Amino acid sequence: MLLNVRANMIEPFGSCKCGQVQYKVSSRALQVVACHCGMCRSMTGAPLSSYVVVKEEHFAVTSGHEVLASYAVTDRTKRYFCATCGTPIFNSNPHTYKGLAMLYLGTVVDHENFVPELSIYCEGKLPWVNIHESSKSFPQAPTRGA
Ligand SMILES: [Zn+2]
Ligand SMILES: [Zn+2]
């Protein structure tokens, strides 16, 4: 069953909706995270965000640099998105998550194979959103290394 496939067995690659921005990752995912914080909701319009976390050094945008726009969500977090179709591609936060890129799960081509192992900021979770039983949940962010 697909849900039992460990996310980090697969090297993610993906694109935005219109296909102009494409990326690839040259190593396995470090982690798959579902975030229930209010900031993720307001910047995606979705009830939660899911991220495939990879090392920045293993991540490369392979096409669409000219339409890859960014927005400073906070003074620490930048969201990168396709300026043509609006798809969020990845976040970076060099302060708290130095060296990491948080890829938006839905942009990964075979995202069915990536199941969140961690659910974070669950204290802000919408009551009708269910957390997958295989996911460890935290009221806020887990301390590093969890
Ligand atoms: Zn696009
Ligand atoms: Zn969040």
Automatic annotation (TrEMBL):
GO terms for molecular function: carbon-sulfur lyase activity; metal ion binding. PANTHER family: CENP-V_GFA DOMAIN-CONTAINING PROTEIN-RELATED, GFA DOMAIN-CONTAINING PROTEIN. Keywords: Lyase, Metal-binding, Zinc. It comes from the Bacteria. It comes from Noviherbaspirillum saxi. It holds the Pfam family GFA. InterPro entries: CENP-V/GFA, Mss4-like_sf. Residues 12-129 form the CENP-V/GFA domain. SUPFAM superfamilies: Mss4-like (SSF51316). Belongs to the Gfa family. This is GFA family protein.
